[in-house]
Known about the structure:
heterodimer, A: 200 residues, 11% strand, B: mainly alpha
Amino acid sequence: MAESSQPHRHHSPTTPVEERVEALEALLIEKGVLDPAAIDAVIEHYEHRIGPMNGAKVVARAWSDPDYRARLLKDGTAAIAELGFGGPEGNHMVVLENTPQIHNAVVCTLCSCYPWPVLGLPPNWYKSPPYRARMVREPRVVLAEMGCHVPADVEIRVWDSSAEVRYLVLPERPEGTDGHTEEDLAALVTRDSMIGVARL
Amino acid sequence: MSPREVLEAGLAEETVPRANGSIAFDEPWQGRALAMAVLVVERSGRGWDDFRRHLIAALGEDTERPYWESWVRALDRFVRDVGLLAPRSAAEPRRS
Lengths: 200, 96
């Protein structure tokens, strides 16, 4: 996880990769392929408009509305679109239901595929070679290291994001939440529980 | 504020801190590289998977290289691959 161990830099001298990004941007703008405002708008979108709160709304709706839950498990993309979420990295969504017997967890062994419209952009550890490699080989150990202790009698299923499919884990509804509104429930849902590296 | 807006504001407060992962950029250039990829894929008429192939290749070349540097390599190759720029990209001025 080299990238997270590096010191956070502000206004440091320009690095080669920064120069490369700047040069590419200048060229794409000059050729009329992109304009700066569009770039800014996309950054704004990914920094502020999408994130795990979207997925939390989907989960809370599924916990509150059995019909929605059924639609979500049958066609994740369509049911998620009902709440207004979609776009790149979310065109083929599959929702994985945790049960008392099964715990689902998601990885992308080849790169960093992740359901952007419902979870935002992936955390650094998700993109790290150790997580990508080890989550498939020894998921129970990796989950325990991340503080997620899956009972021995619960089966762990690890899903490797393929070219098209992006996964969202539907965690089990916590006990003692019977009177909760959808809003209350959404506040309980964490990003990590929707990747399957935490339990609620 | 409507109940929905209250919810969104509350949840955004809860989830925006880096610890919960909704902000993924340690440095501004990473955000620009991401945005360029999203837009270039869109403008190229290709699918995201075409970019993903370049990303997998770049990540596979050097597992020690920081993630976003591999991303930039993939972006540069994608841009040239789809012919949005001349074959010799000015984004690599120092290669010669």
